[in-house]
Amino acid sequence: MDSKDTQFEKMTKTPIPQLVSSLAVPTIISMLITSLYNMADTYFVSQLGTSASAATGIVFSLMAIIQAVAFAIGIGSGSTISRKLGQQNKEDADILGSSGFVTALIFGSALLIFGNIFIKPLMILLGSTETILPYAVNYAKYILFAAPFMTASFALNNMLRAEGKANFAMVGIGIGGIINIILDPIFIFHFNLGISGAAIATAISQFLSFIVLFLYYLKGKTIVRFSINKISKEINTYLIIFKNGMPSFFRQGLASVATVALNFNAANYGDSAVAAMSIVGRVFMLIFCVIVGYGQGYQPVVGYNYGAKNFTRVKESFLFTLKIGTTIMTVLALMGYILSPQIMSWFISDLSVIEIGTRALRYQCLVMPLMTLGVISNMTFQAVGKSLHATFLTSCRQGIFFLPLIIILPKIFYLKGVEITQPISDVLTFIVSIPFIYKFFKNLNNNNRAE
């Protein structure tokens, strides 16, 4: 068998626990490395002061926008690629991959140009105060220069996972992340570049990740092959990519909007509150990336088997991932709740920041076991091409529920309202996900019997 047939056999015949875990573990590792280098930025920058630490939270919103575009293109292409490969339609998979890659480069270049033209008003729009603004601008300008490579590498990363090449994706992202962690203290302190040094380290690491990931395609180590001739001239191809990527765009885009709203409300209680919520956000992302990574390892399994009309394996993979994900999140939530003060003190010595951050992190830990269902449900709908269902569910957590709550709760509970908005939003998202996923599998069972 050629590599395409071998991969099809693997994705449709390998026992579900072994298959999902083999794809999830590299994905979790790459996401942990990404979160660790984000935390490394936060840790080293926090040594420069509270305002500098708060600036990382402001620019994190910008990075979320870049990721929103990249993930929309990468997962929009990738989820369709999985189904096409499950249908053994490699020609369409190549067209989607080539078109998605070029689209990612174009959007990243547009972000570079327009972001630098409007950088100061953009930072203010993202929630920067006057004291934070100089740090935010110095950090953001280098992140924007790396935007084309960031969008391309995130897109390539997701397309590699979509065809079941999670190990390749892990190596590309992992190399960049490790280099970032090494360069951070060198540029910030040794070369005395301050917060700009952290941004330069991130930009270099993103460029290197892009090079490593792209080399896999150039060397022919992938099933999907890029070609100038395969770049689609049909508008429908790009509509398919953006339709299937819409849930990822909303997930990442609303994360940026939610962070901005959080920064604005936290700013009412000073730079300490902004810094605390920024640190909590980075810590939580480290924990959250475990379940997201497991979900992204699960997605290509669903896509392949749904495309191959093997609905029994679709259901089996969902139940396995839900069980494992909930168990992992419960253990991490317990650890996070107990160690919250120590975790905050690792980043900063400001007692007011530690106090605010400890409370916020503990509130979040209380609801973390419930989050698995929302994440896996959303990823299921995206993997099978039900983009409207996926978009609605992904919009709940940091949009439909979060945005009204961040306006209402601080007016009632003041700073505590800022701290509890995300946990309450997560509980509501869990409740809403139940009828959606129940109906999907009920219909899937009926289709399976009909087959």
UniProtKB/TrEMBL annotation:
The keyword Glycoprotein does not apply. It is a multi-pass membrane protein. InterPro entries: MATE_fam, MATE_MepA-like, MATE_MepA_subfamily, MdtK-like. The chain crosses the membrane at residues 20-40, 52-75, 95-119, 139-156, 168-189, 195-218, 273-297, 318-340, 360-384, 396-414. Keywords: Antibiotic resistance, Cell membrane, Membrane, Transmembrane, Transmembrane helix, Transport. Pfam families: MatE. It comes from the Bacteria. It is found in: Cell membrane. NCBIfam families: matE. Belongs to the multi antimicrobial extrusion (MATE) (TC 2.A.66.1) family. MepA subfamily. This is Multidrug export protein MepA. It comes from Terrisporobacter mayombei. The lineage of its organism: Bacteria, Bacillati, Bacillota, Clostridia, Peptostreptococcales. The gene is mepA_5.
